[in-house]
Amino acid sequence: MEVIIQPDAAAAGLLAARMVAAVIKDKPHAVIGFPTGSTPIPFYARLVRMHREDGLDFSRITTFNLDEFVALAHDHPASYHAYMEKHLFGHVNVARDRIHIPDGTAADIPSYCRQYEDDIRTAGGIDIQILGIGPDGHIGFNEPTSSLGSRTRIKTLTLQTRRDNAAEFGGEDKVPFHVLTMGIGTILDSRMILLLAFGAKKAEIVARAVEGPITALVPASALQLHPRTVLLLDEPAAARLTKADYYRYVYEHKPDWQNY
Description:
- There is one protein chain.
- The protein is α/β, with parallel strands linked by helices.
- It has a single domain (2-254), classed as Rossmann fold (3-Layer(aba) Sandwich).
- The chain contains nine helices and ten strands.
- The chain has helices at residues 9-26, 41-54, 80-89, 109-122, 159-164, 166-169, 184-188, 203-211, 244-252, and strands at residues 2-6, 31-34, 62-65, 67-69, 99-100, 128-131, 153-156, 178-181, 192-197, 229-234.
- The strands form two sheets. Strands 1-10-9-6-2-3-5 form a seven-stranded parallel beta sheet.
- α2 (41-54) links the parallel β2 and β3 (62-65).
- The protein is globular.
- The two termini are 16 Å apart.
């Protein structure tokens, strides 16, 4: 697990965009896993800017999103279909038939989840999966106690996660109880994982995920098992890491060919 600490969220978002751009330039038909939430917004803004100003070409990539609410219309303003359109897909030249976002309105959810897994495999697997981390350590919507080998499936949101999403729905009582999410096992199948975490509120859970034991109570701790996981943090999110100085030292002394 590589930990990269940047001065602020803007700098971390820029570095994340550079890393993804490098993947696309090296492999124009790359398969990319995308997240939602507030954390990746600066990252998406940078990708859009790279497309407009530097000609970064999204036309051949294939995308898979992590999750979506169950029984929520795609055009609902709080849906992740709407989110991705607002922050990325509506601004770059991604091919519409290469976009995959879980369909929470599917009539047969177990069958649909199996098909989503099949679609990822058919596409060749995910080359780089971008993640955020919840305050309780969830990745995607794999809440604490999720199986570390889990696959795409329906999950019940915790009370805290529903509260965290209340503003987007206009009240906690309007937040769905259920979501579809890639499983932890699905995420770990990705060739590279890039996790973004910003702000002091994430400091404790980042430390537990990076330096604590691997446990289903902190789903993000499973990333310790992955051979190529990069954590991009701002200074406040890194504040509880006992080895922060070492992580900075390693990053400052990387060989040139490893720099992003």
